[in-house]
Amino acid sequence: MKKAQGYQSISIPDHRLDEFFQVVQWAFVGEWLKEDRQDYVDALPTERARALEVNDDLRGEVGELAAVHASFGTEMITPGGRRVPTAGLSWLGVHPAHRRRGLMTAMMRDHFQRCIDRGEAVSALYAMEAEIYSRFGYGMASQTVKASIPRGSTMWPVDGVDDLTIRLERADFDKHDQLVADLQAKLTRPATIINPVGSGRNARFTDPVGNRHGYERWRIAIVEDRGEPVAYAFFRRKADSEIGIHDGVCQVREHGALTPAASQKLWQTLLDFDLVGTTHTENLALDDPLLHQLKDARGARSKVIDNLWVRLLDVKTALESREYFHDCDVTVSLTDKHVPANAGVWRIVVSGPDATVTKVSDDPTAAADLSMDARHLSTIYLGGTSVESLAAAGLIAEHTAGQARELAVAMLSPVAPLTNWDF
Ligand SMILES: CC(C)(COP(=O)(O)OP(=O)(O)OC[C@H]1O[C@@H](n2cnc3c(N)ncnc32)[C@H](O)[C@@H]1OP(=O)(O)O)[C@@H](O)C(=O)NCCC(=O)NCCS
Asked: What is the pLDDT of residues 343-385, one digit of tens each?
């Protein structure tokens, strides 16, 4: 493993934010507009912004930033509607002049240690490229359906839709942040990321002009049941036309609904804007009510991609912070290159909805019913992927017949996991 020699880890004070942003623009390929600066400041959890700074002139100009990352503290919903303390990792980028010198590896170590010190049992992220994070123990814990749905798609009727009302407004932090946070807090879908704590204005409300690409500003649809919000969605539209035929698009970002009727009311609106031919969304769970309510689900022209990547940093706390759906008593030998305290043999005893998780050996080669790497335990953690399917893929080894199924049935979630906003 490469060592990031000639660099030191630092926190970023406010007066160095522009240097931080320069590295981000180099890494993620793009020039931001000057007028968008405040949006990026608002989106960044500045108190947890970190960087690697050159401290050896063989590596560059001493004092310049070579790599950056940041994370926010939050809670994530786990199967059964419980919560686990989580760090949302984001903004990770290395200046192209400093790539392949182990800087990302050094930042991941820095991130893991600081999370562990703060008591965050899980790290979670959205990946720009799916291949990068597995080597650090992240597993693809949820998947999402990207869909392009034609205007006017019809749905199977659901009781109560006509009793609901809908408001359409420009998304505004001061007006809507608490409303969205309150709705988020009522969702029970695993992988839901609760509003980040301690990071000032919420990133989901940022709207840089440079990211609009001809779209209007982000809007919000709020479904109400006698004045009480029961669903919301961020959306924006773009006009388009060819030979006089209007064929605009609507893009739906995060959304959430508390009831079947609220979901249907929301999508009836989002799928029926005048001058809009198609509505695109990237945030549908594999079992989103919309996919069942649409009469022609195939017409939603969809594909499935990775959603949230999860990394267990404290196996015991993480596994005990979720619900289980079948009793079992299984031992798992776990390898973990980056978090040695996780490595060893763990006994998972489930009785009713709760698990008691105990380390029975520090030796990951000791005998156990199943053996796997931390990234596979992270993949199955939110119940979206079965232990048995990873065993069938040759990624988890079963040493005691039937135990992969035992743990699979205990851990599989009746509700598909999904994080509904992209951080
Ligand atoms: C991806 C990126 C963070 C890697 O940084 P880096 O400092 O060059 O990475 P390291 O030198 O620490 O390499 C870490 C390991 O990941 C591998 N790796 C690096 N970039 C990779 C990529 N794009 N795809 C697959 N593997 C990659 C390296 O080969 C290395 O493997 P090894 O440990 O087996 O040798 C950097 O190239 C970058 O900032 N890219 C643009 C922005 C981005 O993609 N950010 C991350 C996604 S959110």
From this structure: 999 999 999 999 999 999 999 999 999 999 999 999 999 999 9
CA atoms within 13 A on the CB side of 269: 25
Centre of ligand 1 from the C-alpha of residue 104, in Å: 6
CA–CA–CA angle 352, 120, 8 (5° rounding): 155
Q: Which fold would CATH assign to domain 144-171+207-306?
A: Aminopeptidase (3.40.630)
Q: Give the three-state DSSP class for 28.
A: helix
Rounded distance between C-alpha atoms, residue 32 and residue 162, angstroms: 44
**According to CATH, where is 3.30.1050.10 located in the chain?**
314-411
DSSP codes of every residue in 237-273: EE--EETTEE-EEEEEEEEEESSHHHHHHHHHHHT--
Class of domain 7-140: alpha beta
Q: pLDDT at position 215, please?
A: 97
Q: In testing the pocket of ligand 1, which one of 91, 99, 125 has its CB within 8 Å of the most ligand atoms?
A: 99
* Structure-token pair, residue 356: 């008691």
| 3-class DSSP string for 190-231 | CCCECCCECCCCCHHHCCCHHHCCCCCCCEEEEEEECCEEEE
Ranges for all domains in the chain classified under CATH 3.40.630.30:
7-140, 144-171+207-306
Q: Which helix (H) or strand (E) holds 318?
A: helix 315-320
Q: How far is the CA of 23 from the centre of ligand 1 (A)?
A: 15
**Substitution candidate for ligand 1 out of 104, 128, 136 with most atoms within 8 A of CB:** 104
Query: pLDDT (tens digit, 9 = 90+) per residue, 275-306?
Result: 999 999 999 999 999 999 999 999 999 999 99
Q: What is the pTM of this model?
A: 0.95
Distance from the CA of 109 to the center of ligand 1, in angstroms? 14
> How far is residue 217's CA from residue 184's CA, in Å, rounded to a whole number?
22
What's the distance, Cα to Cα, between the start and end of the chain in Å?
28
3-state secondary structure of 143: strand
Q: Give me the sign of the Cα torsion angle 252, 256, 259, 260.
A: positive
Q: What is the dihedral of CA 216, 222, 223, 229, to 10 degrees?
A: 170
CATH architecture of the domain formed by 314-411? 2-Layer Sandwich (3.30)
Pick from 311, 338, 179: nearest CA to 256? 179
- The H or E element that residue 27 is part of is helix 17-28
